[in-house]
Amino acid sequence: MRTLQPTTATLEDQRIPVRAKLAATWTSFMFLYAYVDILNFFTPGVIQDILAGKVFKFDLSQTFSTTALTLVAIPILMVVLSMTLPAQANRVTNLTVASLYIPVTAFNVVGESWLYFYGLGIVLELILLALIVRYAWTWPRTAPSATSLDDETVRAQQQA
To answer: How far apart are CA 23 and CA 38, in angstroms?
Structure first.
């Protein structure tokens, strides 16, 4: 009679490319960013203020709506850019955009009465932005190969 032995094989842990990490983190940020705003509609008084033409302290206008669309469109576009830009441009773009979104995100808690709700949303968004900065900052570099060094030496000698 055969007895079944439990397997102790280790699960394969594949390395995730930086581009995929960045795109996934921007996607998570975008969903969180949008859902905090959507769930805010359930906060008492918010719908009445919107119907009266106000969001927070801002008048509803084409300028407000265009600004709001821009603020949510940038993380959406960062998903695509993180997967398609060349490495150096990708790194700089992610570092710049994530760094600019940190104060924008922190501003969203100002004046909010539902501090637990907004506090949690903003803390999670800031963690995601910190991950983006970390992934972009620590982007792996490749060492120059011996062949490329030899080619550079030959070119330098030819120019001399």
So the answer is: 22
Where does residue 122 rank: exposed (0-12), middle (13-18), buried (19+ CB within 10 A)? buried
The string of pLDDT tens digits covering residues 28-68 is 999 999 998 899 888 888 889 888 888 877 888 899 899 98
Q: Which amino acid is at 28?
A: S
Q: Write down the domain spans for the chain.
A: 18-138
Distance CA 101, CA 104 (A): 5
Write the pLDDT tens digit of every residue in 68-90. 899 999 999 999 999 999 999 99
Q: What share of the chain is helix, strand, coil (3-state, %, to 5)?
A: 70, 0, 30
Q: Is 10 helix (H, G, I), strand (E, B) or coil?
A: coil
